[in-house]
Amino acid sequence: MSKVCDLTGKKPITGNHVSHSNRKTKRWFYPNLQTKKFFIPETKEWVTLKVSTSAMRTINKLGIYAYIKKLEKKGEIIFYSDAQ
Q1: How many angstroms separate the CA atoms of 51 and 34, rounded?
Q2: 5: nearest Cα among 73, 66, 60, 76
């Protein structure tokens, strides 16, 4: 299962655990992804997307259709996980 946001493209990054003695060991930072179903009233369809919580906040602000159109205008390709 991929840990990549469908809209923003956020993905895991690496970093270090830093102990009290300042030892460093490798670790992963994962994006906060949620699987959510959205209804697009303009096209009258439901889509299931795996989105980060920051993308969900932007969707709440702009609306799903406007946000997808904004991303398409920037040239980013959107793939829907499930279109019914």
Answers
A1: 6
A2: 76
Residue 5 contacts residue 52 (beta carbons within 8 Å)? yes
pTM of the model: 0.78
CB 61 within 8 A of CB 53: no
pLDDT at 83 over 50: no
- Is residue 55 within 8 A of residue 8, CB to CB? The reply is yes
Pick 64 or 79 by higher pLDDT: 64
Largest CA distance in the chain: 57
Q: Where along the chain do its domains lie?
A: 25-83
